[in-house]
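Milestone M4 deliverable, item 7.
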Amino acid sequence: MKKFFMVLGSMFLALIVLGAIGIAFVAVRGTTLDKESRAYAEAAIPVIITNWSEKELLDRASPELKQAATQQQLDQLFRWLSSLGHLQKYDPPQGHALMSATTQTGKVISAQYTTKAAFEKGEATVTLGLIKHGDQWQILRFNVNSPQLIPK
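Output delivered:
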């Protein structure tokens, strides 16, 4: 009986050690992904929204985004967004990266960042959804909300 409890205790200790190693790995990896994705968002957002550059968005767009939106839809979106005018200032983007794994999609690394921006004709909230393919971050979603964009 003593041997059984020693084996059981050893197995329990091994599970605790493996769990601690897993948590440490996720914490370190998560911090690295946050830094990478934040740097990407900080670089991408201003070049897209300063003069409403559709080309800059497309240069950074993921295959998923390119498949979801037609060229005509993007042209229309950027004509509409340009009614806000040129960028005056924006706050640093806030957000974080996320690691997930499912049986349908497998391992997915994504991130979401939001920033407040002031334009010539009003303020807006810009949200950027990112996805990491291999070692490259790409834009998965691009959303702009502004009271000035609501049809009157």
